[in-house]
User: Fold this.
Amino acid sequence: MAVRACGLIIYRRLQSAPFAKVTDGIEYLLLQTSYGTHHWTPPKGHVDPGEDDLQTAFRETQEEAGLQASQLTLIDGYKKELHYPAHGKPKTVVYWLAEVKDCNTEIKLSEEHQAFQWLKLEDACRYAEYEDMQATLKEAHEFLCSKK
Ligand code: AMP
Assistant:
C-alpha cells in the first residue's frame, strides 16, 4: 500500500499596485528539506492513525511552518493528489490550497527544513523541480485566477 501524506499549498497576497491583476501579488510558500537532496516542497507529512487527511494537512503545516489553522483560509474547491515513488515505496500526497490571512505572518521552521521562500509562480515552479509539483502549482494558480 502507498504511504499517504497530506499538506497545504500556502500562498499569500502582497498589496498590489492599483490596476494590477489580482493574481500579480500572489506568492507561494516552499520549504527546503534538511534531508535528502534538500528539495523544496509545500508543508506536508504522513497521516497519523485516527487522523483524517485534512487534519493531517493542518497539523503538518503547523509543525513545519508554524502556521496555525486560525491564521489560514482554506480555499474551497481545490484538492490535488500526487503519486510518486519515495524511498522505494509508492507515495500519495494530497494537497489543499490555503491563503495566509496576514501576509506578514512569521514562518517558523522545524528541524525537518532548513530554509523557506515566498515565491512568485514562475520561481516557485523553478524551485519545485518535480514536474508534477510544477503542474500542481500552475493549476492552483489558474484556479485562483479563475476565481477573481
Ligand atoms: P518527500 O515526499 O518530499 O518527503 O520526498 C521523499 C522523496 O521523494 C525524496 O527523494 C524527494 O526527492 C522525492 N520527491 C518529492 N516530491 C516529489 C515529487 N513531486 N515527484 C517525485 N519525487 C518527489
Notes: The longest strand covers residues 72-86. Residues 36-37, 39, 41, 82, 84, 86, 91, 130, 132-133 surround adenosine monophosphate (CB under 6 Å).
